[in-house]
């Protein structure tokens, strides 16, 4: 193979790589544009960073009716009040279908915490 032919092959390899990268980036940008046109784009809700956490109606686990629903959570609402004692049992299941905890084998228990104080 002559030196001129090797240089031509190297030049075409570089050009084919650049062409492939440009096509990939172009396809990515086109698909993103098309998805934004179909779905209406991302609409972000404005919320203050230091807004108070919504409270829970005692005993029901439900938010008061004055709060508004958002599919995208901005804050995590606690289920328990501060300084609440609880027991935590964490199991590992070999299946996606979770059986009743009373039927779980003892060796699947990976964490057992008694008298844990929420808020510590």
Provide an overview of this structure.
The chain has one helix and two strands. The termini are far apart. The chain has 120 residues and is α+β, with helices and mostly antiparallel strands. A two-stranded antiparallel ribbon has the order 1-2. The chain has one helix at 3-39; strands at residues 84-91, 109-118. The longest helix has 37 residues, at 3-39. Among the domains are: 1-41; 84-118, no CATH class.
Judging from the principal axes of the Cα atoms, what is the shape? elongated
Specify the structural class. alpha+beta
Oligomeric state as shown: single chain
Strand content: 15-25%
> How many distinct beta strands?
2
Order of strands side by side in the largest beta sheet?
Answer: 1-2
Subcellular location: Membrane
Pfam families: CLPTM1 (PF05602)
InterPro entries: CLPTM1
Membrane topology: Multi-pass membrane protein
SSE layout and pairing:
Layout (H helix, E strand, L loop, with lengths): L2 H37 L44 E8 L17 E10 L2
Antiparallel strand pairs: 1-2
Provide a concise account of the structure shown.
With 120 residues, the protein is an alpha+beta fold. It has one helix spanning 3-39, and strands spanning 84-91, 109-118.
């Amino acid at each position: 193979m002559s030196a001129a032919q090797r240089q031509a092959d190297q030049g075409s390899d570089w050009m084919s790589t650049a062409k492939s990268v440009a096509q990939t980036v172009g396809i990515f940008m086109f698909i993103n544009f098309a998805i934004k046109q179909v779905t209406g784009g991302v609409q972000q809700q404005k919320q203050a960073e230091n807004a108070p956490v919504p409270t829970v109606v005692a005993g029901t686990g439900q938010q008061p009716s004055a709060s508004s629903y958002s599919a995208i959570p901005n804050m995590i609402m606690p289920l328990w009040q501060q300084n609440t004692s609880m027991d935590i049992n964490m199991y590992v299941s070999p299946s996606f279908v979770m059986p009743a905890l009373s039927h779980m084998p003892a060796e699947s228990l990976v964490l057992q915490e008694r008298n844990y104080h929420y808020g510590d």
